[in-house]
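RETRY 2/3 - previous attempt timed out on the joint model. Re-submitting the same 691-residue input unchanged.
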Amino acid sequence: MGGMARVSAALWRRTWLRASLTLTPPLAWFLVIYIASLALMLVTAFWTVNPFTNVLEHSWTFTNFDQLFTSTYLTIIARTLEMAALVTVTDAVIALPFAYYMARVASPRGRQLLFTAVLLPLWASYLARVYAWIVILQKGGTLSWAFQQVGLGPVNIGYTNTAMWLVFSYIWLPFMIVPVYGALERIPDSLLEASGDLGARAWRTARSVIVPLALPGIIAGSIFTFSLTLGDFITPLLVGGTNSQFIGNVIYDNIGTANNLPFAATLSLVPIVIMGVYLLGARASGAFEAL
Amino acid sequence: MKPRRRHGAAGALIAAAAVAMAVVSIIPSAASAGRVAAGLSVPTANLPVPSSIGKGEGKLNLIAWAGYAQPEWVKPFEKQTGCQVNAKYPNTSSDMVSLMANGGGGQYDLVSASGDADLRLIYAGDVRPVNMALIPSWKQLYPFLQSPSFNTIAGKHYGVSFEFGPNVLLYNTKTFKTAPTSWSVIYSNKYKGQVTVPDNPIQIADAALYLSKSQPKLGITDPYELTQPQFNAAVALLKSEHPLIKKYWDAASQEISLFQSGTTVVGAAWPYQETTLAADKAPVASTIPKEGATGWADTWMLAAKAPDPNCAYKWMAYMSTPQIQAEDADSYGETPANTQACAIMDKIAKGSCAGYHANEPQSYFNTIKFWKTPLATCDNGKNDCVPFQSWVTAWTQIIG
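RETRY 2/3 succeeded.
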C-alpha cells in the first residue's frame, strides 16, 4: 500500500501528469482512429490508380483535383449543396411554428403526444420510410390517387428531384424540430410580455423576439439537416430520377465499381470542407449552446 | 453477380450491395484469356490434382455471393458429407479477390468467382487446378461452360462453371403487341420517359453491342474492348438516350416496381425481374433482340491453399448436380450450367425453366456476350482500349 500511496501523492502533486494520464487513451484513440484515417484519405487523394493494372500508384499528382473541377462533378456538387440548402430551409419553415406550438401553446399532455409523433418515425428504419414514399409518389400511387379524388388530375412526381426534396424534408424534419423546440422553450415569458406591453402585435413579436432567439436552435438543427442531406446517397438511389446523383453516389461508384480509391478520396474531401466551413459559421453564431 | 431475393429494409441494403456486385462481375472472353496466357504463366499450373476424393475434413469455408449457400441445399450437403459449411459473403469481385489473396490464406476453400475475378485469381496463383474426373456432373454442363477460357487455361481447369444469365430486353405487352426485335426501342424517342436501364457503367457495353450492328463502320467487334472513337460513339448514344430514361435502376426490386406501376414500359433487365413480374400477373415479357445481349457467368474455384480439399471437391460435385443447379437457379434467378436441370426447375416452380432460358439451344447462348472487365490492354496489341475506370467516369457524366 505504501507504493500505491506514493504514486497517488505524486499524481496529486503533478497535475500535468494526472491530466496527461487521463487524456492519453481517448486522445490516442482520436488521433489514431479519426485523424489518422482522415489524413490517410487526404494523402490518397493525391495518388492515382494505374489504368492498366488497376494498382494504386503512390506518386504525387493533382490529376484527381483537375478531374474534380470539371463541369460533371461541379454540377453534382452544386446539386447536392442546393438540395441540402433547400431541405434545410424547408425543415426550418415547418419546424418553427410546429416547435412553437409544442413549446408554448400545447398542454403538457399535448406536448407529450406531439413529441412522440415527431420521434416515432425515427424508430422505423430509414429504408422502410423511403420505400413508403416510393409507394406514395410513384405513378398511380397514393398521392396521385388523392389528387384525382379532389379533381386535380394525376400527378407523377416519382423518381424526380422534387420527390427527393419531399423525402429528405420528411426524413430529417425531427432533427430540426427538436433543437428549435429547445431554443423556443428557453425564451422567458417576460420577454414576450414586454414585447406586447411595448405595443408589438403578434407578428412583430414573432419577427423581432421569437425568431432571433430561436435562431441558434435553427442553426443547430440545420447542421443536422444540411450534413445529413449532404452525405446521403441512398435516397438519390431509390427516389431520384435521371439527374439526381449526389456526391455520395459518385464516391460509392468510385469505390465499389471503379476501384478508384484516390478519386473517391478526393470527392470525400468536398463534404468535409463544406461542413468545416458550415460548422465554423454555426459556431460563430452561437448555435452550439442550443444543442 | 446479382443476388436480389431479399425484400424490405434489409433487402434494400443487400440489393444495394448486389448492385455493386453486379457492376463488378464481369467475364473475360476467350480472346482475353488467350492473350493474357501468352505473356503470363499460371503459378499453380503444376500443382498435383487428387485422383480420388478422400474422407471429408468436417468443415468447408466458402467465399460466395449472397444466395449461393442457402440452407435448402447446404443442410442436406452437411448431412450427406459431414462437412460443416461456413460462408463469407463479399460485396464485390474486388472483395473476393482480396479475400482470396495468398491462396485463400489457408482459411478459405472455394470462391464463387465471377469471370472478371477468375483470371486475376488464376494468374495470381490463388486458385489451383481441379480434376474434372471427380466432378461427375461436369459432363452434363453446357459444352460452352465445360472449358471456358475464363476458367480453363491450357487444358487445366481452375474451377467448375456454376450458373449464368443474360441481360434481357423487358417490355410491357400492352405497349408492345409483338416482341421488339431490336435494342433500338430503348434509344427511340417513341417511349420517351418510359425507359429504364441499369445504373451500371457496363451498360456502355450494351450500347456498344447495339452499335456494333447498327453502325458497322465503327468496327466494334467486342463490346468490352473499345477504342476511344468506338467508346465515344457508345457514350454519345447513351447521352442521347438520357432524356428518354425515367430511372436508371439500382436494384431489381426497383425495376420491378417501375414495371408493375406502369411507370416504365421497356428497359434492360435480368430474367429474374421478368419471372417475378409474371408471377404477379404483370403484363410483361422479355426477349433477346437481334443484336444479342450481355450477360454474366460464375465459377466455383478451388483455393491454392484450401485446408479442406475433400469437402471442397464434394461441394463442387454437389453444386453441379441437376437438382442443386435447379434449386439455385429458381432461388437465385439465373440459368443453370447443367443441361439436365430444366425438368427439375419446372417441378420447383412451373415455367421457370423457360423463364430462365435453361432449355434454349446453343444458338441462343451464342448471342450472349459475357461481361468482362474492360482493360486498356486490348486484343489489337496496340493497348489503345478504354479502361474500366474511364467507363465509370463516362457513366457518371451520362447519368448526370
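Chain A has one domain: 67-290. Closing ticket.
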